Structure formats: structure tokens, C-alpha cells
């Protein structure tokens, strides 16, 4: 166990903020850390040394030239050999497990394909078992675990309120089951093990800290998964989750009143008008069971958009409906940045001009205010977001790693 050195109270209280600054890339040097924390150089040096002693960051003793007033300053970075958290994601076609270090760095990942059964313990047991194998193979120390699911997760219960695209019963106790699976697998890092949240919320959080959303004050994320559409809003660095974790269910905005029946009981929702199955069907393609719907839709755009008019027409249809939904959200939320994930990221690549044109025409602020519409930049951002949940107790109190 790492010995804790005596520190002034200011240094002790600065440990968490300092680690978060390095974790998010906002303090690449000790000089920047000093300025961001508003402490003396000596205190910043002691804090950096403490975090290094905990195995969380590295302090490069070869000074950089980026210090204050041109003075050399030591480089700071997350420790690439430090502890990890187990991140897990469940989707309609299976799961993915990953080990994620500080800085949002994916150390190892393992996918699992197959049908998800009605009992959450089936797939959660499989994803935790895959995570345990990754831990055994890597020899890394695990200090937490987080789970991303394609459902709104009610707080404080940790239940999947209405998992429309999974066969789970409404109110499935996913957090409780996940924690039990972790305990059965011998993966334990304290009382906060097994946190769970909606996959798009977590993807937005990861993008805000490490990807295309970095620096945005009001970040709107809209994304497709393997089925359906989700949304999230990050305001001043925090997820806006509403009174009980259920905010921003954007998939159930109506964009075509005469459109397809939706699982929620309405018609023409974003969820069924702009997801991978909608693209395949609009292009006259019959989805096959051997590959996920998302992979089939992405492959169709990449290989046939320019060659097949039916594929282009299908993409135009989805883009028009997506832009209608985004325009309504812009009018209500006034974001300064929009990021699109999953199939929507690819639609932006192929039909970005069309999307922006419809968005400008339908948004009250589209022509009078500039806001960026960007693709999500992180691979597996929901997994990275699940890791952010698991890392948060350590970011709040880095000394917790001594107890793991």
C-alpha cells in the first residue's frame, strides 16, 4: 500500500481537482496545474508528487518549455501503467467489455454477440465474465466498474425504466444485478461498485471530457445505437438528467405524424424514423441476422451511397427527419454545440450540407446564431462514459485507490 505523505490542508483538498485536470487534459504541465488550482508552485508540486505516488499520474522530470513566463515546467500525464476500471455496455445484439484507464484511454476490449434474454443476469453475467478475463490477462488493478445500457435508468433505484429494444421487463434492477455479478466474479473496489446509466448519456459525458464536446458549455448529443435513438445534454460539465435521471428522451420526438409505429405507442418518432433499421428498410434492404443492424447500415452508406440512388434517397429521408428533431431541440435548449453519434455521425459525413440546410430553415436560431454540428470523435464513447462513472469516486477523492 502506498504511504501517504503529510500535506497541507490546501494540498489535500486540491488532490481531486488536480487529478481531474490531468485526467481531462487541461493541465499538461505543472505550471498550468498551479494556475488552474490557484495555489503556490510548492503546493502544486506536492500535489503532483502525491498523485504520482498513488500511481495515478506521471511527472516528467525533463522540464518542458511551456511553463509560466517561459520558465521550464514539468510535464504531467496519466500513468499508462496505473489502475483501470471495468466498463461494460449492453446493446440489442450483445455486449462489450473494456478496461479503461484515466484519460479515457481504452486499455483492452472484448465484444460479445448474441441475443439478449429476458433475465438481465444472463448478459450482465457474460459481460462481467469477459471483463474478468481481460483483468486476468492484463494483470491490471481494478478500482471500479460502470455499466451503459440502452434505456433510461431511474435514480436512485438504478432500474432500467423502459428498455424498449431489450426483452427486459420495465423496471429491471440492472444496477443491483450488475453489482451481484461483480461480486460473484470477485471484482470489488468498494461501496460504489457497479454504477449504471443510459448509454447515450454516458457517451455525451465521455465526449465532453475527452472528445468532440470538449469545451462546450451547452452540449447536445443525439445518437443511434444498434436500435433506436437517444439524446443527452451536458451543461457546464454536468449531465442534465432531470429530477430522476430520465431527461432528454429525444428518441420519442415526433418528426412524421404519419410515420412508422413506435414502440412507445406513438408514430413517427426519431427512434423509428432515423435508426439503422429505418435506413435499411427505406433503402429496400432486408436486414440479416449475422451482423448487427448498426454495422449493416454503416456498411450500406459506405459502399453504396454514391452508387445506388435508393440508398441516397433513404439517407436524405433520414437526414430530413433528423434535422427536424434537432431543430426542435435547438429551439428549446439553445446549445452551443451539437454532436452526432452512431449512424447519425455517418449521415453527417455523407449528407452534412443537407442536414445543416434543413436545420437552419427550421431552427429559430439557425441563421442568426452560429453553433457547431460535429461528429462524435471517440470510439466506444458509451464505454468510456461508463468508465467515467466508475472513475468519479477516485476523481472526487484520489486516496480511495489505497483502499482498492
UniProtKB/TrEMBL annotation:
Pfam families: ROK
Residues passing through the membrane, by range: none
PANTHER family xrefs: BIFUNCTIONAL UDP-N-ACETYLGLUCOSAMINE 2-EPIMERASE_N-ACETYLMANNOSAMINE KINASE (PTHR18964:SF149), ROK (REPRESSOR, ORF, KINASE) FAMILY (PTHR18964)
Family per record: Belongs to the ROK (NagC/XylR) family.
Designated name of the protein: ROK family protein
Source species: Streptomyces alkaliterrae
